[in-house]
Specification:
Length: about 300
């Protein structure tokens, strides 16, 4: 028998956190969204409002559904208050192991005993995260994809000790959210990023070696493989710092040279060229413009 979930707390209100809150609220769940400052939470509510407006304009939801969904989201800066009645927590904080371990220690302390603790980690070991709690059977991965309201997949990750009943509950819940769950085991990068990130890294290596330019690499993958975005644009979209950190997890976890992050990727991260979030990566982003402009740093057709 699977557990009943009504109250969901989302930790973190960034791109993933606000997308996850959006989807739960629109599907009828009571959402408590928690972050360390109210400004971030207010910004997240404004983003959810804007993304729900797109759905109203398209006729996917009515204005009334939008208003009801928004009214189900409460914001908190205090963890104990945010998780007091939680049946499920989805942690979507920054991808940093010490931060996540610390959060899970606190969540374990403050959440009701029956509460399932899920993490949206894109690469950190579930088993390691579960090990800092007294409820490893109730710790699981729910890896949503960006943009959360649009992308259908939830990669459900079992830690070494995750209870089968918890996996079943999260599987059914993912379907209730209109998503398609796929269950995988706890290995570095799981499946999504074990396959995606080496492809992105290979694109950066090809650019670094001067095999082709940014636009050529992306066009080849978009038109040749029917990918919605080329690998370099996708790297900018994910964030080059996140790509770099996932490559490091793969490199350390498997110990194989094929997972070593490209030097160009490392340099861009050190120099603060992080993609969309910093305004420049392989492309340059101007607020309000949808044009895709290759960064001047890579402007020559074949960059060397
Ligand atoms: N909220 C709600 N709807 C959104 C949205 C958002 N944040 N962003 C886009 N949309 C909707 C648009 O309204 C539009 O809807 P319709 O087609 O019904 O009109 C649709 O999505 C397409 O949007 P756009 O027309 O603006 O742009 P697009 O056609 O270029 O698509 C995209 C944008 C969906 C992002 C597409 O480019 C895409 O699928 N890119 C690849 C995304 C991807 O690979 N994500 C996974 C990243 S990896 C990850 O997340 C995990 C990790 O651990 C690294």
């Amino acid at each position: 028998m699977s557990l009943k979930l009504n109250n969901v707390t989302v930790i973190g209100s960034g791109t993933m956190g606000n997308g996850i809150s959006h989807v739960f609220a629109q599907c009828g769940f009571n959402v408590s969204m928690m972050d360390i400052n109210q400004t971030a939470l207010d910004k997240a509510i404004a983003t959810i409002n804007k993304n729900m407006d797109r759905l109203v304009v398209k006729g996917t939801i009515t204005e009334e559904v939008k208003m009801q969904s928004l009214s189900r989201i409460k914001t908190y800066t205090d963890m104990a208050a945010a998780v007091k009645d939680a049946d499920l927590v989805v942690e979507a904080a920054t991808e940093n192991i010490d931060l996540k371990l610390n959060l899970f220690r606190q969540l374990d302390q403050h959440c009701p005993e029956h509460c399932i603790l899920a993490t949206n980690t894109s690469s950190i070991s579930l088993t390691r995260i579960a090990s800092v709690t007294k409820r490893p059977g109730k710790v699981i991965g729910m890896h949503f994809m960006n943009p959360v309201p649009v992308m259908k997949l939830i990669e459900v990750i079992n830690g070494y000790g995750t209870d089968a009943e918890v996996t079943q509950t999260i599987y059914k819940l993912s379907e209730q959210l209109g998503k398609v769950p796929c269950v995988v085991n706890d290995y570095p990068g799981f499946i999504a990023n074990r396959i995606l990130l080496p492809m992105i890294n290979e694109a950066v290596l090809a650019l670094q070696e001067g095999v082709a330019g940014v636009a050529e690499i992306d066009t080849i993958m978009k038109l040749g493989m029917a990918h919605p975005m080329g690998p370099l644009q996708l790297a900018d979209f994910i964030g080059l710092d996140t790509c770099y950190s996932i490559m490091n997890v793969l490199h350390m976890g498997f110990g194989a040279q094929k997972y070593a992050p490209a030097t160009l990727l490392a340099n861009m991260v050190q120099a603060g060229y992080l993609g969309v979030k910093s305004g420049e990566g392989f492309y340059k982003y101007t607020a309000g413009s949808k044009d895709l402009v290759v960064s001047e740093r890579f402007a020559s057709r074949v960059w060397k």
